[in-house]
Amino acid sequence: MSILVDKSTRVVVQGLTGSQGRFHGLRNRAYGTNVVAGVTPGKGGTDVDGIPVFDTVADAVAATGCDASLVFVPARGAAAAVVEAADAGVALVVCITEGIPLHDEARTFAHLLRNCPGTRLLGPNCPGVISPGLANLGITPGEIALPGGPVGVVSRSGTLTYQALQELTQKGIGQTTCVGIGGDPVPGTGFIDCLRLFQADPDTRAVILIGEIGGADEEAAAAYIAAEMDKPVVAYVAGVTAPAGRRMGHAGAIVSGGKGGAAAKIEALQDAGASVVLSPTELGDRMVEVLATLS
Amino acid sequence: MDLLEHAGKRVLAAHGVPVPIGHLAVDVEQAVAAGAAIGYPVAVKAQVPVGGRGKAGGIKVAGDAEEVAAATAAILGMSIKGHVVRRVWVEEALAAARELYLSFTFDRSAKRHLGLLSGRGGVDIEEVAAEYPEAIHRFHVDPLDGLSSAAAQAAVDGAGITGDAAEPLADLLVKLFDAYVAEDAELVEVNPLAVVADGRVLALDAKVILDDNAAWRHPGWEEWRDLEDLDPRERAARERGLTYVGLDGSVGIIGNGAGLVMSTLDVVAQAGGRAANFLDVGGGASADVITAALEVVNADPAVRAIFVNIFGGITRGEEVANGIVEALGRVDLHSPIVVRLDGTNAEEGRAILASHESDRLISRPTMEVAAATAVDLAGSAAR
Question: Whole-model pTM?
Answer without folding.
Answer: 0.90
